[in-house]
Write a structure and sequence with these properties.
CATH class of the largest domain: Alpha Beta
Largest sheet: 8 strands, mixed
Helix content: 25-40%
CATH topology of the largest domain: Aspartate Aminotransferase, domain 2
Number of domains: 2
Low-confidence stretches: none
Mean pLDDT: 97
CATH architecture of the largest domain: 3-Layer(aba) Sandwich
CATH superfamily of the largest domain: Type I PLP-dependent aspartate aminotransferase-like (Major domain)
Length: 377
């Protein structure tokens, strides 16, 4: 049986909004404002309204956003930045590129996210910042992290590339969009994200006007006035064409997140009786927008076998991330490690992400879960 199941169905998503996207693209091209056009400024304002952030600074991609955010803090060579070991390499990569020291700490096995307990184990007199990564669509426990950072005088840069659209819920019931709780929030508009463009794109957000101006300067070669370079910067801009696409898709972001939540609930219902796997957990301090639907196999030795089995049945799946950061060669001589990284290593050996996207149909999920059950039968 071949249902042509996609890990991410960008073609199907585009088909539903084709007329709006095509019109936006035609207008952007016709206006010939290819760099910093009116579409970029409009998208900036609309993303500020959506997130509640006082300032949004669009840029070239999510990795640039992280690098520019760190550059704006004026950290010194050898200063330490705490980052989870179970995540994509981008956050640790930019720390190293700026001659700072990435300090890799463990994560919680239920949330996949870094917790305060993990962060405490990475703290040293050289620690200057924390980059909590909101992995797979759910926030870290930011209230506790922010309280800790305030006590120790640390900057907090949120990596919100996978969780744009989620809410963090404070203990008093207040809600804020993820990416707006820390000092600076960073996100990516890579095509497969919940809000994705048709190429690369990213943004930073902050409530601090002074740091917002500095972020913008850095992204524009260190200039606030053309040809007047006040600080060293880089060239990182969101293309006008991509901004036009993002303006259309931003209007659908909440529905996209809802569609993913519905798909996740169906998976939960269909897989709840399987004792061999653990399903993703949700926590009271965060909504979950399911950028990924990631299961854990209780017997890690079965993970790769299940992946091959599903592939043979026409079902894609992915391992995020097969090698934790502490085992990546690039960081071998520049990183420091927290007390233990056993959870990151364990997750890398046991997780598997199933197809989840806005166009995923119930009959596709029935087929996927039936095959998983057959594997364990």
């Amino acid at each position: 049986m071949n249902m042509n199941i996609q890990m991410v169905d960008l073609k199907g998503q585009y088909a539903k909004i084709k007329q709006e996207i095509d019109t936006a693209l035609l207008n952007a091209v016709s206006n010939t404002e290819y760099i910093n056009g009116t579409e970029v400024k409009a998208f900036q304002k609309e993303l500020e309204d959506y997130t509640g952030a006082a300032h949004v600074i669009p840029c070239g991609n999510g990795t640039d956003a992280l690098q520019i955010a760190l550059m704006a803090l004026d950290l010194k060579q050898g200063d330490e930045v705490i980052v989870p070991a179970f995540t994509y390499a981008a956050a640790a990569e930019v720390i190293g590129l700026l001659k700072l020291t990435p300090v890799m700490v463990d994560v919680d096995t239920d949330s996949f996210n870094v917790s305060l307990k993990n962060i405490e184990q990475g703290l040293s007199p050289k620690t200057k910042a924390i980059i909590p990564v909101h992995l797979f669509g759910q926030s870290c426990d930011m209230e506790r992290i922010m309280d800790f950072a305030k006590v120790h005088g640390l900057y907090v840069i949120e990596d919100n590339a996978q969780s744009l659209g989620a809410y963090y819920i404070f203990s008093d019931g207040r809600k804020k969009r993820t990416g707006t709780v820390g000092y600076i929030g960073c996100t990516s508009f890579f095509p497969s994200k919940n809000l994705g463009c048709f190429g690369d794109g990213g943004a930073m957000m902050t409530d601090d006007e002074t740091i917002a101006k500095k972020l913008l300067m850095i992204a524009r070669h260190g200039q606030s006035i053309k040809y007047h370079h006040e600080i060293l910067g880089c060239n990182s801009r969101l293309d006008t064409v991509q901004a036009a696409i993002l303006r259309v898709k931003l209007r659908y972001l909440d529905q996209y997140c809802k569609d993913r939540q519905i798909a996740a609930k169906r998976y939960n219902s269909m897989l709840q009786d399987l004792e061999e796997i653990e399903l993703p957990k949700e926590f009271p301090y965060s909504t979950h927008v399911y950028h990924q639907y990631t299961i854990k196999l209780k017997n890690p030795g079965q993970r790769d076998k299940l992946k091959v089995f599903l592939h043979e049945k026409g079902i894609p799946s992915l391992v995020y991330y097969p090698l934790p950061l502490q085992r990546q060669v690039a960081f071998k001589y520049i990183a420091r490690q927290g007390e233990t990284l056993e959870n990151a290593a364990s997750l890398s050996a046991s997780v598997l992400s199933l197809p989840i996207h806005t166009e995923l149909r119930e009959e596709e999920q029935l087929y996927i879960t039936e095959q998983i059950k057959k594997f364990f039968a």
